[in-house]
Amino acid sequence: MGQSDAVAPTLAPDVDLSNYDDEQVKLMEEMCIVLDRDDKPIGAKSKKECHLMTNIMSGLLHRAFSVFLFSADGSKLLLQQRASEKITFPDAWTNTCCSHPLNVKDELVEKDNLGVRTAAQRKLFHELGIEAQDVPLNQFHFLTRIHYMAPSDETWGEHEIDYILFMRPQHKELVDMKPVANEVRDVRWVTKDELKVLLEQGLTPGSGIIVTPWFKLICDKFLFSWWDRMLEEGDVAKVARSEEVEKIFRL
């Protein structure tokens, strides 16, 4: 392997996890897909290793996804507030579901982004209790990828190539869900105008509203134009432009 393809070296500082939720600590053992800057898998590291700022600052990069789940008429987007128990970005408002494909056979499939879509379906059930039959794999629509880095605090952060997925189920107006308290503190269906208010509150000191950095980046760069396009076209499959699908946006 050339230097650009080598798995970034990682450190294993003695991070005390005893004050964190036991279930969230266990999830830190999952193996994420490590990437080069061109989104090529080059290895695997634990979720803990991938989210330590010491490793992030050394260049460790992993694959992620962000799901945007809409109402059937496209007028509302489902948001979640991350649980207080989360190790990274607790209590922050974000898009419907954000997580990582794992270094397992089904979630490593590159063709048609099937591995990412499989992971998204898995996590929608794990976090929000949304059944797979309500979010079929063929109804996830890939729009683009963003590459970003953001600290959560001095210890933890994100450095990801994030696959953006839209879904607009047609079989019912709003999908059924049973949010898992350990994962999700609150949920909210919002219109475009309501989302803009939430984002503004996230920038207002003392508002009590926190917004995840990747969600804010996606909203600032893409979301509202995509949302308009989806409503104009009447078809979520027509939202993505070819130049967006092919590009990794460095934000």
From TrEMBL:
<keyword id="KW-0444">Lipid biosynthesis</keyword>
<keyword id="KW-0413">Isomerase</keyword>
<dbReference type="InterPro" id="IPR015797">
    <property type="entry name" value="NUDIX_hydrolase-like_dom_sf"/>
</dbReference>
<keyword id="KW-0443">Lipid metabolism</keyword>
<dbReference type="InterPro" id="IPR011876">
    <property type="entry name" value="IsopentenylPP_isomerase_typ1"/>
</dbReference>
<comment type="similarity">
    <text>Belongs to the IPP isomerase type 1 family.</text>
</comment>
<keyword id="KW-0460">Magnesium</keyword>
<feature type="domain" description="Nudix hydrolase">
    <location>
        <begin position="60"/>
        <end position="217"/>
    </location>
</feature>
<dbReference type="GO" id="GO:0004452">
    <property type="term" value="F:isopentenyl-diphosphate delta-isomerase activity"/>
</dbReference>
<dbReference type="GO" id="GO:0005737">
    <property type="term" value="C:cytoplasm"/>
</dbReference>
<dbReference type="Pfam" id="PF00293">
    <property type="entry name" value="NUDIX"/>
</dbReference>
<keyword id="KW-0479">Metal-binding</keyword>
<comment type="pathway">
    <text>Isoprenoid biosynthesis; dimethylallyl diphosphate biosynthesis; dimethylallyl diphosphate from isopentenyl diphosphate: step 1/1.</text>
</comment>
<dbReference type="GO" id="GO:0009240">
    <property type="term" value="P:isopentenyl diphosphate biosynthetic process"/>
</dbReference>
<dbReference type="GO" id="GO:0046872">
    <property type="term" value="F:metal ion binding"/>
</dbReference>
<keyword id="KW-0414">Isoprene biosynthesis</keyword>
<dbReference type="GO" id="GO:0006694">
    <property type="term" value="P:steroid biosynthetic process"/>
</dbReference>
<dbReference type="InterPro" id="IPR000086">
    <property type="entry name" value="NUDIX_hydrolase_dom"/>
</dbReference>
<protein>
    <recommendedName>
        <fullName>isopentenyl-diphosphate Delta-isomerase</fullName>
        <ecNumber>5.3.3.2</ecNumber>
    </recommendedName>
</protein>
<keyword id="KW-0752">Steroid biosynthesis</keyword>
